[in-house]
Structure formats: structure tokens, C-alpha cells
Design goal:
InterPro entries: RNaseH-like_sf
Number of strands: 2
Strand order of the largest sheet: 1-2
Order of helices and strands: HHEHHEH
Protein name: RNase H type-1 domain-containing protein
Helix content: 55-70%
Strand content: 5-15%
Largest sheet: 2 strands, parallel
Distance between the termini: 21 Å
Amino acid sequence: MFNNCPPAWVEFEALHHRLLLFLSSSWAIKSKLIIESDCIQLIDWCLEREVPPYPIRSRVQEVVERLSSKGFCVRWIPRLYNLDTDPLAKAGID
């Protein structure tokens, strides 16, 4: 499905699925979602600092509207800061 897609598009799909999962959970009623990513392009799309590519623009805009209407926080975390957590996350997947 994601063959030959730019990495930021794949990151967007992951964000979109995380958002849907959160909104369908009981946490959505009482908690605020904080989205962190090391993909600066994705963060720029979410914060509307950069216009997404045409093929996914409407989907990104839809997600951005949901994020802003709920007051969710979107942050860029440099990959360097994820060096310790990345292996833990991958170990949890296997």
C-alpha cells in the first residue's frame, strides 16, 4: 500500500490511524491527545506552516480540522531524542 510513497505520507497515515484509535477510545472523553513525531514535514502540515501535496491535501486538512477542534497538541521531537525509545517500541512490536 505504501510502496513508493514519500516517508511523510506514511507518517501521516500512521498519525491518522492513531487519531482514529484515540477518538474511538474512552480516553477521548477525558484526555487531550499529544502527538509527537520526528517528521518535521508532517508537523508543518499539521500546524499549517506548509501546504501538503495535492494527492493527500484534503485528507491532511480533514485531520488538521479534527486536531484543532479538539485542542490536541502536535509537537516535533528530534530523532536524536528518540534513540532510547525507538528500540523499546520496536521490541514491543516483535
